[in-house]
Amino acid sequence: MTNLLLASTENTDNQNSQYTSLNDPEIAGVVAHINEEHLDELLGFLSAFTSLSTAELDLVDAQIIDIYAEGIAIQTCPKGSENKPTDAQNDSLHDQTFFIAFAAPISQLDDLQVQYILLKQRADKKLGKKTIKLTKQVFEVQNSYRVSKNMLRLELSMPSLNNDTPLNNTAQLSNTKGATSSTSVPTNEAGYAYLFDLEHNAMTNALMTDSTDGNKADESAKENVHPARPHCYYTLRKAWQADDEIRAWVDVFLHGDTPGGNWAAALQAGETVVTKREFPEKVEHLRDGQAVLIVDETSMPTAARLLELWNNPTPPLVICVTQDAGDQSYFDTVKMRSGLDCDTKNNGNNHFTILPIVTNQVNSGAELATLIDSKLGDYLTDNPLQIYKVWGALEANTAKALRPLLKNRLELSRTDVVVKVYWRHD
User: Fold this and answer.
1) What φ, ψ does residue 304 adopt, rounded to 5°?
2) CB of 278 closer than 8 Å to CB of 267
3) Is pLDDT at 148 greater than 80 in this prediction?
4) What is the number of other CB atoms lying within 10 angstroms of the CB of residue 104?
5) N or C: which end of the chain has fewer CB within 10 A?
6) Beta strand pairing call for 317-322 and 291-295
């Protein structure tokens, strides 16, 4: 992959004249999203495809300054430079711009996602990291039931072998001749997400209805089959090997008339569900130090699995935001790797602590971010803790507003405050 170190920003326009501008009005929004949500990926690109050392990367933040047909331009700046002037030690890292080429040029912005994913896959492979996979998986629905007032658990299975390249911790199955083969369903991952194909079930149900009625659907009826949202990401709550198949839980928050909730609630035992993409969550920074996890109903499954696999001697504080008090019970049966139960009252060294926030409304927006920050501040006043790491996943506007509040309150770097966007309030 071509890598060019461009001149400083004073000369970037001349240097970049060799690249083809896309001239798409949506580019600014895409650039802003990547810079806000995917700093770790940009630093990974710089680590994999440039000569910057690990020591240098530890001192900088990164941002995309433009997207071209041929690739992306990433600019570095000293870490925390938005709050303090550049000093002499970091001056050499100020405003350096690197060009990272795509595997193939793009002709329109719609092609960017594929090339960005390929870029991430190549960087992760070079760095020895788990990465996104464009893999089709087929599961069979075994059962569904509520595990809290508004959380529906789907019990899924994968009865057939999968020959895709496995992750290191995937389950092993035996075929009829005794040979083992790996599935790509991870049994030891926290926050592993699948992109579910909602349209698959809508089309299947429509075809079954046509067959039952003995009628062939007209074109207008077929158009009505397509759901408002054809795909949804859901976290793998848990997966394990059972005899000759893999069993899995996927927990879906049911909140009003939503494409994902309607899809999950309508599923029946014996139906198949299809996934088209897999994405590992970024939780490596939680391996040491006192951590706080901040979740709502969409990210509680990730946190639950993370607690079961907790690989840090210090139990975390969990801020759990729900619309309904009836969903706070979700963590009641969760046990940490050590087998310790959830403790909602004390913050002893032997338990993780739940700090509940019940809002009685849709959990989105800057006001919720202020409430979370305030509740955390009150808790830390009564229970002095030094927080070193944060992981959270919330609505987009909430996450955007919460990040700077936490950085200021806890005096942490951007890389130690990971607050992801799990959904957007329309």
Assistant:
1) -60, -45
2) no
3) yes
4) 12
5) C
6) parallel
